[in-house]
Amino acid sequence: MSTLEYSGMTVRYGHGAGAHVAVQGVDLTVASGGVHGLVGESGSGKSTLAAAAVGLVRPAAGSIRLDGTDIVGHSASARTARRRVQLIFQDPFSALDPRMPVGASIAEAMRAAGRRRTRAEKTRRVEELLGLVHIDPARAEDLPAAFSGGQRQRVTIARALAADPDVIIADEITSALDVSVQGVVLNLLRELRAELNLTILFISHNLAVVRYVCDTVSVMRHGRIVESGDTGSVLSAPRDPYTRELVAAVPVMGERFDWGEVS
Ligand SMILES: Nc1ncnc2c1ncn2[C@@H]1O[C@H](COP(=O)(O)OP(=O)(O)OP(=O)(O)O)[C@@H](O)[C@H]1O
Questions:
Q1: Which sign does the torsion angle of CA 81, 82, 83, 88 carry?
Q2: Where is the ABC transporter domain (predicted)?
């Protein structure tokens, strides 16, 4: 069980007259074991919702709960529960320390999550995590520069998994990648979801990608959710005029996509 639930979420940047409301009264539930998409134009507040769940921004109002436990506050229980939510960013190039071998990077994430392990256990777990994302465990000593963009994004996924999360928030994780490797990362996410029973909030401006990976979807505009529902229904028969505009802007929306296999 790992249901992520935002209610009445409001986030402002800045203070006083210069304050900007980035997210306004958002209610959003990501069902346990489900993949929920979040789409909307640039600046609509998608990344702000993601940042709030991992403590990078402080909401002005509202709550975020994981299986009913608050994950926003400063209490010990909130901090512990927050570790069960891991964020993966868009850019696999800046996400990894260029001077640190990828295995060490993954081990560091395990430490940060408070996992105490012996050196041998750590090595074994790093190998296991690299294997999970289809990277040869023998490459643990390699620096990020030795990997392609798609492989680096897989390493950042392994690093997120090092904390043994229940929830992954994937923020535009394929948009910095060549189209040819996007499918590999998307298929990996689908595979991991099934294997590890992850709950996923999947942020993307790419509706074809959202249709491929998400069970349900919410459409954001100007900090509010304008429409939510099953991905198929929302994208095939949008009720909200703004969603209709978004869908109409993607000419291939009705076609099936073949994103290939994870290699
Ligand atoms: N650190 C910040 N300080 C001030 N304003 C910010 C900050 N981060 C985001 N904003 C503003 O908040 C609004 C929501 O931004 P956010 O990044 O959440 O949108 P988004 O939908 O994720 O956009 P994109 O798809 O471009 O990433 C935007 O108007 C943005 O300019």
A1: positive
A2: 4-247
